[in-house]
Amino acid sequence: MVDVILAGYNVDRNALEDLVRKGAITNDDLKNFLTPETISAAYARISRDPAAVTELRRVARGEVEKARKSNQAIIFKMGHHSVAEHAVLNFDILGISKLAIETLEAQRLCSYTEKSQRYIKLGEDYIIPNELKGFEAECRDLFHAQNKAYNEFYAILGPYFQDSKRHIALAHEVIDAEEEQIGKKFSAETRQQKLEPILDGWAKEDARYTLSLATTGQLGFTTNARDLEKFIKYTTVHQLKEVQELGKKLYDSAMSVIPSLLLFFEPNDYLRNSKRRIKQHLSSMCLPEIEPYPLFSGDDEVKLVMPDKEADNKLVATLIRSGTGKSYTKAYAKATCLTFNEKKEIVKKTLEGIQQWDAVPREFEIPELTYEIIMSASCFAQFKRHRMLTLLPGPYEPAFGYTIPPSIEKSGLSPEFNQIMHHAETLYDKIKKEMPETEAAAYVLTNAHNRRVFVKMNVRELYHVSRFREDLHAQWDIREKATKMVELAKGVMPLAMLLIGGKHEFQKIYNSAYSD
Known about the structure:
Elements: H1 13-22, H2 27-32, H3 37-44, H4 53-62, H5 64-77, E1 88-97, H6 98-104, E2 111-114, H7 136-163, H8 165-182, H9 188-207, E3 216-224, H10 225-235, H11 241-255, H12 269-284, E4 302-305, H13 311-324, H14 328-337, H15 340-351, E5 368-376, H16 377-383, E6 390-396, H17 406-410, H18 414-434, E7 450-458, H19 459-469, H20 476-492, H21 506-514
Helix pairs in contact: 3-4, 3-5, 7-9, 7-18, 8-9, 10-11, 13-14, 13-15, 19-20
């Protein structure tokens, strides 16, 4: 009979320090006994020691220094770096800029919960990075103007949304969808209590488009020791000094708890020089002249590049392979001989009975899509949360333009908004002229400024994006991008897209697909 034993769990560090103050444990206990390294050391021995894992943990707890040496030997000499993944750490990170947060949250296998500019009213919280020395006064003037505009816009947009019949109706649709999801009707009083925060939230999230990427935030960051080490190593060669400082502080904090698990954090030649080498190589080649920042229209904001016209056949072939045990080659040959309706029935049988919170089967990971998307910093802040896809963002560049929230335009605030954008872009150009290689100029750009993002994902991941980002609860900017991504995918692989859509529309989409 299987036996499950809770081996450990995260504990608030301050709670342990409170126990020290109360005399329940000592500082030596905190330093040399209560460390996640013992779990890593015990689990590392499972493969070679016949003792029960509970006994291995007991031994490791009693011999912490020996456990640390064991970790170092196993990781360094044997290359079994995965044992570091058993040690999990939590960090509070405060006073970090939105620009630096993007670097941290690019790490795939970590967990983040961030203070949202969409829901929280912001003050004048920003940094002026060391790289912009000499531009401090101009940065302060810009950031003050941006924050002033943010407060003024919020004061105007609040009443705009409260008085807009269209937005009130849309907010009621959001509440209706919530009722449907929980299978319960709200009272009139409850509906009104829910209505106000929705409308106020829309005012906040549109006003924030004026704020700079230097605006600071805070987040909770959870990671295992192996992924932490990778990030620390990456920060040592990062161009932004703020990111370098973040890596050093994470290292110093972690080393007080898990010194045996952070071993490979020094940068090598590959990390230091690979980008420089390829840049130099490309510049030396006789490539045809390419306009670096081509103009784009609204229709070009989301492009499906390298469309796979065989995607539906690949999906059906994979489903046949899984259902029959045939080789993929034979399954694919069979799929190409089927009629459209026959292939559709295979997909329908596969998805029959699925609920809105269920993931589509792994077979949907075989067909892939590649997009090139122009998106604002506000949109990217949400899109980057989908970390299982391949996301290759380019730099923020004024040449890609900026995104104006529709509410700003309809409230007559476009002239003031454009003035803030122009102010930011003028300072950006001045910084780049004096320091063309610096990435720090991006700090002065805003949540509205665009970047070009290259995205590769499988169909299963697009379903996940669509469920959350096409839903009524989704913010309008990312919802527009997700809707366009799905529309383009439907044109190439209609069978794979059979039940795709936002959560609020799931039942309608399902009923339509199975009504025949």
